From TrEMBL:
Comp. bias intervals (Polar residues): 269-282
GO CC, alphabetical: neuron projection membrane
Name of the protein: Ig-like domain-containing protein
Provenance organism: Mytilus galloprovincialis
Record InterPro entries: Ig-like_dom, Ig-like_dom_sf, Ig-like_fold, Ig_I-set, Ig_sub, Zig-8
Domain Ig-like: 38-130, 152-253
Pfam family, one: I-set
Biological-process GO terms, alphabetical: synapse organization
SMART domains registered for this protein in UniProt: IG
Region of interest called Disordered, as start-end residue ranges on this chain: 263-282
Length: 302
């Protein structure tokens, strides 16, 4: 028993020796992360927006570690934000935080967002890192005192050819003049699409949202689960902006999977033959190699 215990201790010691390089590597990496100097990445230093637009002041930092990030307007004595906490609830200000380690290890984003910017927001802002040494990134914001007028527009995106029983997914982007359109309606073959209609019941989903940037667009996503042949037809999305209606349409075809597969095979074959229109025979590399090997063996064995 004593001998077994002795061998077990030797095994434990060997395991520690094997894990020691990994422990040293992880410890060294953690130490480097903690002691590395934070740096600001190059982002726009001058931002210009029109009144009532959304202003986004970018601040990307590498090797922030446990330090805090604060945004402050240089002309003020108090911070606007620390971390993601906002100190002035009257202002429509927030921080957009993102961990960008998928792009680069140790990279984070701390953008200052000012919704419905006003001329009084014009000025120099600083993105500051709270540490032993002061690290500061300056961004100048200019807010033009007239609203930006954009002509309303509408566009629809989606696949026109759908296999039977696969979902139909359509996206409608509608842009207003000075702000996002108030609504988007969907139509199918001239009839408004309504969730309570038995035709669409338990198959229909419509999701509307307004992106933060640029703030004048309304996006509507229409999804019809488990498509049937009767879903074939003209789909129309309609927006209302600046006291006018704007429409766009898309024709959707629902295909039988077998027929669609045959069409795809034929098309693939045609494109292959078109690549070599003057060639009546395409040699197989493996067949050629086998023939060459057989000839060589025949010559050597003679």
């Amino acid at each position: 028993m004593a001998r077994i215990g002795f061998y077990l201790k030797i095994l434990e010691f060997l395991e520690i020796l094997l894990l020691l390089p990994l422990i040293i590597k992880v410890t060294s990496y953690s130490y480097k992360r903690m002691t590395a100097e934070p740096t600001f990445l190059n982002t726009p230093r001058n931002v210009t927006v029109h009144m009532n637009e959304l202003a986004q002041l970018q601040c990307r930092i590498k090797n922030l570690g446990p330090k805090q990030v604060a945004w402050r307007k240089v002309s003020m004595d108090w911070p606007l934000t620390v971390g993601i906490v906002t100190f002035d609830p009257k202002e429509d200000i927030s921080v957009s935080y993102k961990d960008l380690k998928k792009q680069e290890e140790g990279l984070t984003q701390w953008d200052l967002i000012i919704k419905h910017a006003k001329p009084r927001h014009t000025g120099m802002y600083e993105c500051q890192i709270s540490a032993k040494n002061v690290y500061t990134h300056y961004v100048y914001l200019k807010v033009i005192d007239t609203p930006l007028v954009v002509n309303p527009a509408i566009a629809m995106y989606g696949s026109q050819f759908i296999n039977l029983h696969e979902p139909i997914k359509l996206v409608c982007n509608a842009t207003g003049g000075t702000r996002a359109p108030s609504l988007i309606d969907w139509f199918f073959n001239g009839h408004m699409i309504r969730g309570r209609d038995p035709r669409w019941k338990s198959r229909l989903r419509i999701n509307d949202y307004v992106p933060d940037v640029p703030g004048r667009m309304l996006v509507s996503e229409l999804t019809i689960d488990y498509s049937i042949f009767e879903d074939k037809g003209k789909y129309v999305c309609r927006s209302f902006a600046m006291n006018n209606f704007y429409t766009t349409s898309l024709d959707i075809s629902v295909l039988n999977k077998k027929e669609h597969g045959k069409r795809a095979d034929t098309k693939k074959y045609s494109s292959t033959t078109d690549e070599n229109p003057n060639s009546g025979y395409s040699a197989n590399p493996s067949t050629s190699l086998l023939a060459l090997t057989s000839v060589t063996l025949f010559i050597l064995l003679r």
